[in-house]
Design a protein that fits this description.
The structure holds 2 protein chains of 2 kinds.
Chain A: H1 18-24, E1 29-33, E2 39-40, E3 55-59, E4 63-72, E5 85-92, E6 97-102, E7 116-123, E8 132-137
Parallel strand pairs in A: 6-8
Antiparallel strand pairs in A: 1-2, 1-3, 4-5, 4-7, 5-6, 7-8
Chain B: E1 4-11, H1 22-37, E2 46-50, H2 61-68, E3 76-79, H3 85-98, E4 104-111, H4 118-125, H5 141-156, H6 160-174, H7 188-192, E5 196-198, E6 201-202, E7 212-220, H8 221-228, E8 233-242, H9 257-270, E9 279-282, H10 287-296, H11 305-310, H12 327-331, H13 338-351, E10 364-371, E11 376-383
Parallel strand pairs in B: 2-3, 2-4, 9-10
Antiparallel strand pairs in B: 1-7, 1-8, 4-7, 5-6, 8-11, 10-11
Helix pairs in contact in B: 3-13, 6-10
Classes of the chains: A mainly beta, B alpha/beta.
Chain lengths: 139, 385
């Protein structure tokens, strides 16, 4: 199911594959280590703090701030039909970061590092089977 | 403690080399190194190949290069650390010599990048980042450095013009380097008006894929003195560090933490400070990368990289001449070879053999070679006596 996440998937096999199922239901999830309580976004099967492999998914807040962004004009394979597109790096209030695409509620000219944003799960409407991504929007 | 010295260097022409295969490129640089050091093949005990395999149709290139250069049955192995493979190989050679296992080791950087078709290149370009969470959004190499540039502009007021000045300097010196891919000067207007790649970068903010080879030969102290006499240049400081591959967990976006740590190690080992460095070759894969290098290496205070280039402090005659061979930007970037090429330039400078690009009084030099988006960095410090 993890292959649902992203226009192209390079990582179909992962222990955190359920991330994509949650995303499909509109939930953003990170991971919590059952041993030491360390929380991570994006989720990790193996705790970076204590290396335990016992984890559970926890719902994650979508609010954050835009750290930086770039408009990609020269796109790689699989993304040329979308170019130009704006890639954003977002720091989440709850911790962790996410990469996503600038969504329709924002304009490139309005983007400023450190501005408040929110990430939302989105479906590619034109692509079958299920394809999901993260969209960076006005809060 | 015995030292390890460079006894020979060889450099081939970089560029779109439609006339040569990868082993033929290696032969150009290897032949030049033997001539440079007055060496014969029988004096070499082992070879380390620096190359990034995914660009070559030939799998396990090391075997072919050893055969083609007539180096069998000597031991050989490959070093790969993305764009820092060349320096990884030099570090490996230093360890091999220092351990006493081998006395004379050839480091052969050889890379052919332009044989791949455009779709193959574009597919590779889409997998430079962390592929599970980042590459699925179509991130690219220029895109990653562009995001670092955007953050640097935001925090320190660095401008597009300052980035452009890095390209202007690179091409100024590239025009004076016969091995460079681009041997033509450019104006700031041209640098700024270039075709958009990944905002804020245009094409002149980016280095180009290239074909090319370079060789350095290292030897233990006694052998080095016997072979190279007063032309020996010592590799006295080695630093190497890593940071996160993904920007998702990178501790800072306005510095390469791997470079800061590698520099600290190298300065300490060589017992020098930044102000001792008379000439440096740094990893300017994108214009912002050179500004980050000035700051990470301690050539200027944090955030002042833009001003440093504006004041021409990195030109010959400035505080710290940097990339006076044209850098990756003008030389071209045959990724496995680049670190070896940097070493060749610094050795040439320290010997006083750099011709019209010679930095006067260069007795301590540095290379700064970054792999990937910054996840690896090697800093090497060379001394003349």
């Amino acid at each position: 199911m993890f292959s649902w996440f992203g226009k192209i998937s390079f990582t179909p096999c992962t222990k955190v594959a359920a991330f994509a199922e949650h995303l499909k239901e509109g939930r953003l999830v990170g991971s919590r280590c059952k041993k030491c309580g360390s929380e991570n976004f994006p989720p990790r099967a193996d705790c970076p703090n204590c290396l335990s492999d016992e984890f559970e998914f926890v719902e994650w807040h979508r609010r954050g701030k835009l750290l930086t962004y770039t408009r990609i004009d020269a796109a790689p394979t699989g993304f040329q039909d979308m170019a130009p597109y704006v890639v954003c790096l977002v720091e989440l209030e709850q911790g962790g970061r996410a990469v996503g695409w600038m969504g329709e509620s924002l304009k490139e000219e309005e983007l400023r590092p450190d501005m408040p944003v929110e990430i939302r799960p989105r479906f590619f409407e034109e692509i079958e089977p299920i394809k999901l991504y993260l969209s960076v929007e006005k809060p | 403690m015995s030292r390890v010295g460079v006894v020979a260097i060889g450099h081939g022409r970089f560029g779109r080399r439609e006339d040569a295969s990868v082993q033929e490129l290696a032969a150009e640089a290897f032949r030049e190194a033997l001539a440079d050091g007055g060496l014969e093949r029988k004096e070499i005990d082992a070879a380390i190949i620096a190359a990034v395999p995914e660009y070559h149709k030939q799998r396990s290139l090391t075997g072919l290069i050893m055969e083609y250069l007539g180096l069998n049955p000597r031991p050989a192995w490959l070093c790969e650390d993305a764009c820092a493979s060349g320096s990884a190989a030099i570090r490996s050679a230093w360890m091999a010599v220092k351990s006493g296992l081998h006395k004379v080791v050839a480091v052969i950087g050889a890379q052919k990048m332009t044989e791949l078709s455009t779709p193959e290149i574009l597919a590779l370009m889409g997998r430079v980042g962390e592929v599970q969470w980042e590459s699925i959004f179509g991130t690219t190499f220029p895109g990653y450095y562009a995001m670092l540039a955007r953050r640097h502009m935001h925090e320190y007021g660095t401008t597009k013009e300052q980035l452009g000045l890095v390209a202007v300097k690179a091409h100024y010196y590239g025009a004076r380097n016969k091995y460079a891919m681009f041997q033509k000067e450019i104006t700031l207007e041209k640098a700024l008006s270039s075709q958009p790649v990944a905002s804020p970068f245009g094409i002149f903010d980016c280095c180009a894929n290239a074909d090319g080879a370079a060789v350095v030969i290292l030897a233990e102290e006694e052998r080095a003195r016997a072979l190279a006499k007063d032309r020996v240049v010592w590799l006295d400081g080695l630093g190497c560090a890593t940071t996160t591959m993904s920007l998702l967990r990178r501790p800072t976006l306005v510095s390469l933490p791997s470079a800061v740590e590698a520099a600290r190690q190298a300065y300490q080992m060589a017992a020098v400070v930044p102000s001792d460095i008379k000439v440096a070759d740094v990893h300017d894969c994108f214009t912002i990368a050179e500004l980050l290098a000035y700051e990470d290496l301690g050539f200027c205070p944090r955030g002042q990289g833009g001003r440093f280039i504006e004041e021409k402090q990195s030109y010959i005659g400035g505080k710290h001449p940097v990339n006076v061979d044209g850098g990756l930007k003008a030389k071209g970037h045959p990724i496995g070879t680049t670190g070896v090429s940097m070493a060749c330039e610094i050795v040439k400078q320290l010997r006083g053999e750099a011709g019209e690009r010679q930095v006067p009084g260069a007795d301590v030099g540095l290379t700064h070679n970054v792999g990937g988006n910054g996840q690896y960095c090697f800093v090497h410090i060379y001394k003349k006596e």
